[in-house]
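Below: protein 1.
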Amino acid sequence: MTCPVCGTVPVPAARFCHNCGAALPAAATLPASERRVVTVLFGDLSDFTSWSEELDPERVGAVTDRVMSALAGAVKTFGGHVDKLTGDGIMAVFGAPVAHEDDAERAVRAALSMQRAVRRVLDDERGGGAPLGLRVGLNTGPVLAGVQAGLEYTVIGDTVNTAARLADAAAVGAIYAGARTVAATGSVAGWRTLRPLRLKGKREPVETYELLGLHDARGTRAGLGEEGPFVGRETELGRVAGRLAEVVDRDEPRVLVFTAEAGIGKSRFASEVARFANGYEVSAGRFAARTGARVLSVRCAAFGERRRLAPLADLVRLAIGLSIDSATAATRSAVEERLRRLADRLAQRSEPGRPVKVDSEALLALLGYAGPHEMMQWQGVPGGDPDGTGRDSHKLAIAVAGLLNGLTSESPLVVIVDDLHDATAETVDALGTALEELTGPVLVLLLGRPELVRKAGQLTRVSDAEALTLSPLRGADAARLLGSYLKGGRLPQPDEDRLLTTAQGNPFYLAELVTLLMERGALTKAGAQWRLVPGSMSATLLTRDLAAVLAARIDALPAEARAVLRDAAVVGD
């Protein structure tokens, strides 16, 4: 349990948070300690002692406060827990007390954000002594997590010690990581292999890697899950096609809300919908080879420095021809020119009684281009005060809706918002406001986990919104997907049935299961025939990625439900 106000882990049996004083909700007793898999981050300022001894204590204190505030802010932005602050360093944990599906990636992104923040501070404050810089070490692995000595929540174990040693060994301005961190982030980050390092306290040399940078686009999970064919969604695609035809015929918007459990394939479904909708032939009312409807597809991020209202901002970027991944590269004048040209073009195409409204000032603020005189007006939006209240999100949402309505004068519009369960409450409400203001042929697809329906807020008030579920694959569809993972090979029917029964129609789990069994040598091939080693399905079949998904789902449960799971674990496998 964490404080509902500040997120601090309370001491056992406490009724009030020792950090902010907020009343703590009554909850089931949590264990004094538990094993968890986490990513530990250590950051250390190099040459801080020699630099600070030549300066007044007041200046040293001011610089230290700025640096520590920047480091702690980066950890919070990416969903980590600040374990402790030292005079010239920080220890942070990603995965405890609350786990996420991508804790290693969050730690890597936080480390990069720290390096940038420290460089900015030191460029302002540098003076006297040797040049300063930040060294960062990352390591992923098992720890024992809990409240130590009845005082503070922390994690202990070899994973922590190794992360600290990697930070000691790192070059100034560099980020070093262990093998498990690299394995978990290979799809989103580039790494350079270093020679194994002999670290203090370690009997054997430790595999070490240096971070080169992040890939341009947000990475997808590596593995078999993205390689298989798109199967078993004919009914759902038919529903989308029918609604798109209605949108065009009736010249009015519709909203579809698709929910699915983790791993069912909602993001793959969204990408297929985008591909098909791009080929919708408006005049014939069918899917064809040529482009008819325009598709704007965005995703909600679970973390990041510019997370608030990000899906709305990304829709605007796509509408004016900017890349989401390189959005910050455009200057304000360039964006203003794009908005002006788009407004002029849409105005020429507008119909009588349906004027085009492009609120350039609001859209610029949403994109982070608010000028000095506009900052106070747009508090709480990406271009304004990052700690603002977001009181202007309603007006911004209406501005986005006006832009989308204007685009329908050129062609029908399909708007896809994926991972909506990760959006902030303010973002969900702002999106709901925008949907209520839509007019003309706009089909909106909202996709997320089942909890999306419970927290949708203003979205539940959108008239005629349809809530649909993507179900697990069954029968021939699941067998076809398995066959693609086996590269066309076949399994004896009893072995195939055991695999499909274990995966329960979840494409992600099926892909992870096949990968794990291959790695263990339990799924072997002779010619075109595959076979399962007898007894291999009785062992614990839990991959790293699947364990991360399950840990995140368990941590999202109420405390009472987590306590039941903890007690039931005594049953074993």
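Below: protein 2.
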Amino acid sequence: MKFAIAFALLASAVSAAPHIVQLEMRDDCVGKRFAVFAIDNSNTVDKQDPDNVRYEVPRKVFEKMSPEADKGAVLIGSWNEGNRVAAPLGPVNNLRWDTPAPGRGDVKADELVVAATTHIKNNVPEEFKDHTAIILLTDGFTVTDGGPTSEVNNAFGVKIARAIHDAAYEGIRVHWGHLNAQHDRRDVSFYNTASRDSGGFFSEINNGGEIAGFVDQVFKKGLTNKDEECRAKPQPEPSKQPETSQQPEPSKTPEPTKEPEPSKSPEPTKEPVPTSSCPAPVVSTVTEKVTETVKETVTAPAPTATGNVCFAPCDAPGAKPLTNVKIEL
């Protein structure tokens, strides 16, 4: 019963949550990270970001960071208050800051970057210098109070590029979120190059719907130098299982030796039929005549192999009848 109640309470809490926070997946290689936001609150940026989108970006970034390991801070630059620390470096899930009133004058973006770099150097141990990042949110304009608006890709822009370069020298990546809701035609290549040279990401943020895309690209690029280093680190290959030694194939049982077939006895040599040297086949006649004239029994030796015994009719020329002769074969 207690389990059912606890499960019901958990389900109701989840359903009541406004959204589900999806933390960034990373391994232990990255360790601690420190992200400091430098937010422009000048007179010109108020026109380029009338919905205060720039103050929602830090929340989205901090939500994707580790609440146990990572820390963040928020600095806001304005003409009347200078570059103040709205939320000092601390755990990302405990940071709170206010949304100030629109500024009246200009904000020197180079000094805002320098202030963020100083805050990191004063609060982050040297061993974590490559675990740090600055996210600059500005419209890329500067204005003298009451004077003309000028673009950053001039002498003032050179100062910003130098400030970003100095931050990169300290191992800090600088990401630039370019606020440009009015879609002014400007050459952004100058500070685009500066931020990318530090290892950071540059993109326009024209409305609230583009926040998620910017944040995703920052993490895809690598929030800090350490992120990219760990991403490029080759993963150890899984240990291969030793191949099982192949068992030799069982020897085939030799086929039984066939018994030699008994050699056939040679057929007895047939006695050659002696060729008759008698002048004519007179067997029937001889038999008849002999039967009639035999009156005595005479034993005669068997004919030799070379001898021939011939019978002829008694009335043949030169024949002499034998009296009382009996021939046994």
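Strands lie at 34-40, 71-78, 82-91, 132-138, 141-143, 149-151, 172-179, 202-205.
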